[in-house]
Amino acid sequence: MVNGLKSEACEARGMHNIIVVLGTRPEAIKLAPVVLELRKHPERFHIVVVVTTQHREMLDQVLHLLQIKSDYDLDIMRPTQTPFDVTEGALWGLRPVFEAEKPDLVLVQGDTTTTFAAALAAFYLKTPVGHVEAGLRTGDKYQPFPEEINRHLTTVLADLCFAPTEWTHQNLLRENIPAERIFVTGNTVIDALLMKAQQQANFDHPVLSRLDFEHSRVILVTAHRRENWGEPMRNICRALKQLVTAHWNVDIAFAVHLNPAVQQVVREELADVGRIHLLEPLSYGPFVHLMTRSHFILTDSGGIQEEAPSLGKPVLVLRNVTERPEGVEAGTLKLVGTNTERIVAEAERLLTDESSYRTMAQAKNPYGDGHAAERIVEILGQWLG
User: Fold this and answer.
1) Structural domain count, the chain
2) Catalytic position from the list 137, 152, 224, 225
3) Could you confirm whether 27 is annotated as catalytic?
4) Which of 101, 137, 318, 332 has the lowest CB atom count within 10 Å?
5) Is pLDDT above 80 for 368?
6) In the prediction, which pLDDT does 10 show?
7) What is the CA angle 280-315-237, rounded to 5?
8) What is the mean pLDDT of residues 162-179?
9) Which of 27, 37, 101, 111 is catalytic?
């Protein structure tokens, strides 16, 4: 036990003991506003933050930036780990923590293997689970893999489902989740984004500080999904080479995921290509600043699909399906997959057709208003009594 009160002390003080479990950078970004909001009410909530470190470096960056200290660090990350390794490590690591803390509720976010394992561990100990960002679906259990099934199974185990949009709410109802367990809150990633976007930021990065954002159109790229490893990643890289060859005033900032399967292909294809800048993953603050300065974004990230519309940035989604169709319907996202010709054609449209660019840039963000964390905390207080 570190930095915490035992559940008996919480009960004596009339406090609710909540464990928040984090494994990856996106979980930390999206749960940070909830943790910070919960901590505004120390008379009602005692918060224990547990990190599995499914991802180490990128998770630590966000925790430091958002000033969130973990109470337990399970340190399960291993080289070339698989979902088997993460699931086993998280289950065994979380069990003694949950047994010692005896939480009133375990709070998880999204669709990672940590999320599913934490919900399963809580279920085994008959502990209620709150699932933030519930109800996203593609309908294809292998896209994204393993996230689609992780999210679905977490919903089945959850007692409270915090759906970010009405579309996700309807998904849950169609799956026969009882209506009284579903709450539409908006997406907490918008809360986090707006907090950081309001802060002044300057690049001290050796590459980004030299980019001429005034005269060059900078395309931000991220790609890391398992289904895009191998040949799909090479197709993405080939498209990027074609774009900088065709446009002298285009620079590409590619934030390359640390996974060796991504690093190897990207560096083989792009390491020596002019005006393509391969970056190590940026901490959250500089990354938000880079999004605000970019012309548009190419990504397979779920979180960026939600964030970019709030910044007025068109997004070309490097996936064949998305569990976030609200952005496609609103017009701020476009699915382009990983076909080289399709990526180039859609990027060319945004580079050469001002009307097409303006239509996507001005589309309304359907994912939230920046107050999702407040709603979640209010619901938790009412539900816990």
Assistant:
1) 2
2) 224
3) no
4) 137
5) yes
6) 66
7) 50
8) 97
9) 111
Which residue in the list 27, 104, 133, 307 is annotated as catalytic? 133
Distance (Å, rounded) from C-alpha 288 to C-alpha 194?
9
Whether residue 293 lies in the annotated active site = no
Question: Within this chain, do residues 260 and 302 fall inside the same structural domain, yes or no?
Answer: yes
Same domain, yes or no, for 167 and 224? Answer: no
Instruction: Tally Cβ neighbours within 10 Å of residue 231.
Output: 10
pTM for the complete prediction?
0.85
Q: What is the CATH number of the domain that holds 168?
A: 3.40.50.2000
Beta strands in 5-89 (DSSP E): 16-22, 45-51, 72-73
Whether 196 is in a domain gets the answer no
- What are the tens digits of pLDDT across the range 188-239? 999 999 887 776 566 778 888 888 888 899 999 999 999 999 999 999 999 9
- The residue from 73, 101, 104, 147 that is catalytic is 147
Domain-embedded: residue 193: no
Which of 151, 257, 275, 324 is catalytic? The answer is 257
Look up 85 and say whether it is catalytic. Answer: no
Question: Is 277 among the residues known to form the active site?
Answer: no
Domain assignment of residue 264, yes or no: yes
Please state, for a pLDDT cut of 70, what percent of the chain lies above it: 94
Q: What are phi and psi of 65, to 5 degrees?
A: -60, -40
Q: Give the highest mean pLDDT range of 5-9, 10-14, 306-310.
A: 306-310
What average pLDDT score do residues 343-347 get? 98
Q: What is the dihedral of CA 261, 233, 189, 86, to 10 degrees?
A: -30
Residue 118 within any structural domain of the chain: yes
Domain that holds residue 162: 7-187+369-384
